[in-house]
Amino acid sequence: MRSILNEKNLNSKNILLRLDLNVPLENGNIIDSTRIDKILPTLNFLIKQKSKIIILSHVGRPKGKIVKALSLKPIGEDLKKKLNVDVKLITENIYGIKNKVFFERFAEKVLILENIRFYPEEEKNDQKFAKHLSNLGDIYVNDAFSCSHRAHASINQISRYLPSFSGLQLDLEVAALNKITDEITKPITCIIGGSKISSKIDIIKNLIPKFDNIIIVGGMANNFIEYFGNDIGKSIKEKNCNQIIKEIISLSKKKKCKIIFPEDVLVSKNLNGSSENKELDQILYDEMILDIGPKTINRIINIIDNSKSILWNGPAGYFENPNFAKGTIEIARKIIENNKSNKLFSVVGGGDTVSLLNKLKAVDNFNFVSTAGGAFLEYLEGKKLPGITALN
Which residues lie closer than 8 Å to 63 by C-beta, 6 or more apart? Predict the structure, then answer.
């Protein structure tokens, strides 16, 4: 994989830059600009090289149709403010743009082609569409790691027709994930949450041989609590998971990786209720588990203290209610504390976890925070991502 940093001749070149600018919008306003902020270094680097930048990106799932509410216009306005350069949205039909000469008429150094998913050929990874896109530039750069698990035309197929490079943010993402999965500094711990074990089983299986501890929290921990003979009341759980848990436990013993799940919990009778700390054998039929308890928090903090590397994906509880946010907040605080004293290397990913860190204004206190959802998880599973494979 060649980084755009190593390409010497970028002056006056047309750079087709694939970004993930899929930020949440409400009435045309950007709710969270994290994804935009992360790609600013790549844009600033290319601007300094005096390249003409033609951005390819998407918002939402228009399914091959033009949806005005999913225009990239507000993103372009946000980029103009942050880059302090003129940014122009090109609304012409892509098929009407025959080649890169079209862009010579614009004085702006940053141009954005309208939502690439307005074209059904994009998600079909259509070869002719990708070839047409390639006619619009001299060089292709992928700085959209969070889309790189998609075999789409502007992610995968396009690299067949142009010299292709990785962007600065994609380089950082891959380097951080490699450090946590291949270039490991032990002891290494994974804290993993979410509601479904089945969606994380391949990640857990891939990490068990490499990791010293895997801490199961969130909704998926309820299945472990029940598997070991405890009543979980009306807590969220996934059906028919006993075989999966059995496999995880068997493999972890074979590979000498400790599997840790809650030993005490916070419960309530509804999501909006107050919390009550309970031992696992005290949970009533009409109660639901919504966070980890103080004994579990202390155990996790102790494990973090004895770790050199941490991978964290998924909150420990229903943090939307402050009564059940303590477990997640305490995990974050301990990782931040150890990070600041250079005791560990930390990688965090997953929408809910990043959302909480944004609320705590703590994103910059981790070594790497990934906004990539599916791509982040598939990389951890050991899968080859079409966008990365194309660059190789």
Answer: 117, 120
Q: Which residues pair with 268 in a beta bridge?
A: 288
Report whether 235 contacts 289 (CB < 8 A): yes
Q: What are phi and psi of 358, to 5 degrees?
A: -65, -40
List the structure tokens of 164: 């292709």
- Best CA proximity match to 16, nearest among 139, 158, 157: 139
Residue 206 structure tokens: 């891939």
Q: Which two tokens stand for residue 383?
A: 């899968």
pLDDT for residue 199? 86
Q: Write down the pTM of the prediction.
A: 0.89
d(CA 308, CA 186): 6
Q: How many residues does the chain have?
A: 392
The whole-number average pLDDT for the span 127-137 is 97
Task: Provide the 8-state DSSP code for 51.
Answer: P
Sign of the Cα torsion 185, 187, 193, 199 reads positive
Under 8 Å between Cβ of 275 and 324 = yes
Read off the pLDDT of each residue in 63-77 and give the average, rounded to a whole number: 96
Amino acid letter, 72: L
Domains of the chain: 4-170 (3.40.50.1260), 184-381 (3.40.50.1260)
Q: % helix / strand / coil in the chain, to the nearest 5?
A: 40, 20, 40
> Among the residues of the chain, which ranges form H helices?
34-38, 40-48, 73-83, 120-123, 127-134, 168-181, 201-207, 219-227, 242-255, 294-305, 326-340, 351-359, 374-381, 386-391
Are the beta carbons of 298 and 292 closer than 8 angstroms?
no
The structure tokens listed for 77 are: 């306005």
DSSP result, 43-69: HHHHHHTTPEEEEE---S--TTS--GG
